[in-house]
Write a structure and sequence with these properties.
Rossmann fold, six-stranded mixed β-sheet, about 140 residues
Length: about 140
């Protein structure tokens, strides 16, 4: 698990995001894109189920948005998603996967996902969703 320092800009960003993604390249690109294009701070990352669940269980763990990949180095994002509603009440749970089939979307929704995005085809939609969350957070 990696907990990231707060950026030097903007003292209080509306959205705090935790990313569960096993690919270092995707993780780095996602962090750079989200933090550059949105009023969002990535507060940490995990590349496997155990690390993600340990972070959610740690004292003071909080995020407004959790992005979860389904297939991880060890374990599964589905188990992270199953535990997240109880451990992070109020957090928006987003699945970002290459396997966004209708069946997978239904399964994720049943486990508490607010949205499911296809990594290869729906990144603009993901950014628009995050922008709406940030705007809503800034308004409150």
């Amino acid at each position: 698990m990696r907990v990231l320092p707060a950026p030097d800009r903007a003292p209080s960003l509306p959205l705090r995001c935790f990313i569960v993604e096993d690919s270092p390249i995707i993780r780095q690109n996602l962090i750079a894109t989200l933090e550059e294009m949105l009023p969002l701070q990535v507060v940490g990352t995990a590349e496997d189920e155990r690390t993600a669940v340990a972070w959610m269980q740690s004292p003071g763990a909080h995020c407004d948005l959790m992005m979860i990949d389904i297939f991880l180095k060890a374990g599964t994002g589905l188990e992270v998603l199953r535990q997240a509603p109880a451990l992070l009440p109020g957090a928006q749970l987003v699945v970002l996967t290459n396997y966004a089939t209708p069946d997978m979307r239904r399964r994720c929704a049943q486990l508490g996902a607010h949205r499911v995005f296809d990594k290869s085809a729906e990144l603009e939609e993901l950014l628009a969703f995050c922008a709406r969350l940030a705007a809503d957070a800034a308004a409150h």
